[in-house]
């Protein structure tokens, strides 16, 4: 093994040891129904028993009758709870649900591919496509008509660039999917981060067109940045679709496909993906819809014997989350609609109509009036689901994105200071990283200015152990443990407890400079 190879292997291992691997879930302490329903039952039972206590002076017979009555009531309650549970189970959708984020460099074909998926799964009819074809032509963007399915606002259609994360749903035989179509342009990376933080699976779209793969893959190109962000944000599986295979400069060339795969593979490894287990490559044409719902015809592409996109999506496995864990839902958006409606992805636990919960960090006690999954009202939603929850007890203006809807018995901690292990990726102008460094912290739905207040230890990339000597500054590529402060209270968790709520990125002037995980919470800073 030559030195360079060894270096890469070392760095790879280092990244793994940083445990930025989302499969690294930690066991959570199981808790029944957020502790809420049970607590109520307990109170009810307790009250009944108190009644019994009062009767003690009465005749034995009366006491006996009362006790029988109490027992009956408790039994009834238990039975109705069981019925409820059975009803919930029945209502739970039989298909599993996956959130898929489309990422990749600007113009790679994310919206086109997303739009094509909706067309192929029968959600958009020919008439609508014809309408979009005309609209795209009028805007001199003929080839963008498929992207118009996902790019719904005027600015996006005129410029041919996604700005807001598009959201849509489709189903295969086995799975219900929520598609999140992220923008590729570098100005909108914060929107991409919010999209990726809601997803378990990423479709990394790469343009095979001559010159386009190269621009996306260059330093500063979003192919690289999106991959690093996706890994940090918890996207555990990647389907790398080599798109625009129909383009005249590509023409389904195996050579071009192999070139892209061989260049991407070491980079994906460096970013922390286990390429054998977590990554799958496949060729497609999003515009024409080839190798998407059905496998590409041999007359078009003789050398591809692998799956089509729908098959590959259907076959992705993601780590199971605990439906009985303490409830955690970072709020990504909110609006008023017969109460306050909050939107987000359930990261742990379950939510059901009638639950009492708390919004952190402002500790607002709320009642769940209704739960919506996709467009449907449901009685209960579990981890991994993207939901809208209607609440009473809190005003819409008192909620900010990044707040977390939590169970009352184990609310999420809120802090203004925490300890973290960081990997410095690329500092602006190769600056040095010292105490006093300011950046924007992105952690689940939180976006906050932060300051590094102290570097605690540098980690030796070779031995993976903390170095003894005091560290005052570090440079690109370094691993360092430090103390981070924010001005407002934020709700986060230790990475080892809840990976999704404990991993973050630091960005400066629109560039991702570091990724990291929370290793300690300064609870006295709350
Ligand atoms: P942003 O949202 O700006 O990041 O771009 P995007 O990745 O969503 O790309 P979009 O779908 O808007 O497509 C950009 C251009 O690439 C459009 O002109 C599409 O017609 C073209 N395109 C997308 N997929 C294909 C494909 O499979 N083949 C060919 N030939 N062109 C494609
Ligand atoms: Mg787009």
TrEMBL record:
Residues 1-85 form a coiled coil. GO terms for molecular function: GTP binding; GTPase activity. Residues 95-324 form the Tr-type G domain. InterPro entries: EFTu-like_2 (IPR004161), G_TR_CS (IPR031157), GTP-eEF1A_C (IPR054696), P-loop_NTPase (IPR027417), T_Tr_GTP-bd_dom (IPR000795), TRAFAC_GTPase_members (IPR050100), Transl_B-barrel_sf (IPR009000), Transl_elong_EF1A/Init_IF2_C (IPR009001). The keyword Nucleus does not apply. Signal peptide: none annotated. Transmembrane segments: none annotated. Keywords: Coiled coil, GTP-binding, Methylation, Nucleotide-binding. It comes from the Eukaryota. It holds the Pfam family GTP-eEF1A_C. PANTHER family: TRANSLATION FACTOR. Belongs to the TRAFAC class translation factor GTPase superfamily. Classic translation factor GTPase family. EF-Tu/EF-1A subfamily. This protein promotes the GTP-dependent binding of aminoacyl-tRNA to the A-site of ribosomes during protein biosynthesis. This is Tr-type G domain-containing protein. It comes from Quercus rubra.
